[in-house]
Amino acid sequence: MKLLLIEDDNRLARLMTSVFDEEGLSYDTANDGIIGLELALRGIYDVAIIDWMLPGRDGPSICRAIRAAKIPLAILILTARSQIEDKVAGLDSGADDYLVKPFTLEVLKEKLV
């Protein structure tokens, strides 16, 4: 499995990539929405983990662009937004799953299985 992580919080990105390393997963990272979308549109990833609030372009707009390009990619959106309306908006943008921050690394691992 090849992952794409689009996350601007460097500390969180390091924690998440340490999990990917432990699991022997291949991944690329981007810390802003513009670069993240460029990478996603290459069509080489199985899963994208996308933060909602990013510099350059937000997570839901990245999801919509990926879906519009018909890239076959599972999308997990990360966010501190925990309201039902936010979850619905995230899923409506094309995300397959939604994970609210803060979360445990064990939950992240389960989402990747």
Give a brief outline of the structure:
With 113 residues, the chain is α/β, with parallel strands linked by helices. 42% of the residues lie in helices and 22% in strands. It starts with a strand and ends with a helix.
Lay out the secondary structure.
Elements: E1 2-6, H1 10-22, E2 26-30, H2 33-40, E3 47-51, H3 59-68, E4 74-79, H4 84-92, E5 97-100, H5 105-112
Parallel strand pairs: 1-2, 1-3, 3-4, 4-5
Please tell me about this protein's structure.
Helix content is 42%, strand content 22%. The protein has 113 residues and is of the alpha/beta class. The chain has a single domain (2-112), classed as Rossmann fold, CATH 3.40.50. Helix 2 (33-40) runs parallel beside helix 3 (59-68). The longest helix is centred in the first third of the chain and has 13 residues, at 10-22.
Q: Give the structural class.
A: alpha/beta
The order of strands across the largest sheet is 2-1-3-4-5
Number of strands: 5
Cα shape: globular
Number of domains: 1
Q: How many helices does DSSP assign?
A: 5
CATH superfamily: Response regulator
Uncertain stretches of 5 or more adjacent residues: none
Strand content: 15-25%
**Overall helicity:** 40-55%
CATH architecture annotation: 3-Layer(aba) Sandwich
Order of helices and strands: EHEHEHEHEH
Features:
alpha/beta, globular, 113 residues, single chain, five-stranded parallel β-sheet, Rossmann fold
